[in-house]
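Onboarding guide, step 5: your first structure request.
Type a short instruction followed by the sequence, for example:

Predict the 3D structure of this protein.
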Amino acid sequence: MQSDRSHIQRLTEVFSDLGGTFVTPPAAIAARLKNIKAIVFDWDGVFNDGFKGEGLPSIFSEADSMGSNMLRYGLWRQNGALPVAAIISGEQNLTARHFATREHFHHVYLGIPDKREALAHLCATQNIKPENVAFVFDDVNDLGMAAQCGLRLMVNRKAGPLLQQYAIDNDCCDYIMANCGSNHAVREAMEFMLGFIGDFDNVIGSRTRYDGEYKNYLEQRQCVTTQNFKIDADSIIAAD
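The system replies with structure tokens like these:
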């Protein structure tokens, strides 16, 4: 027990020094992670800064791509099964769909005004519960869904101190990240969760060696065919 406490204390110092804010006590975050079977990301403002222009695509970084993959590998090691991975966005974002397909996420939901509906659909189709979901998000339209999830990581935006306080006061976040979407917030989320799972070094070491265990995970991941969904007449349906 002492070593567990020391590990949690060290991680608390690391992420606090980085600039992260713990809303839920670190030991409780570590306990919640034991029940996480799915990771869901918002897109705009999470994988990027959220800026857009007519005819201009959004972007993502390979550092965040590797982060999402290492997190899924860590959850696979923890649970003995491939974690569900999804993107839920309020916009029709083809880059998000491209990323999800390339990375073999299970679901991508685009153009969803009430993300709680997508969460309910994801849980029903993947046989999980909201408390099994870790959610990485950044803005107002994410809060309803965040309130229902088991672990909530909010991307930092220094322009939104009142929104952050609202999320804290209304039990919509467990940790506010140090970094914004344009500065690899997804990578921070990966290191944070893997650190509190307690398997960061083993995950990175296994991937570095490209050993049999990692290859087994990757083979399973590559078998996932991404399913695309949209909203139609207040129902979630398959998208082309």
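Each response can be followed by summary notes, for example: The chain has a mean pLDDT of 95.
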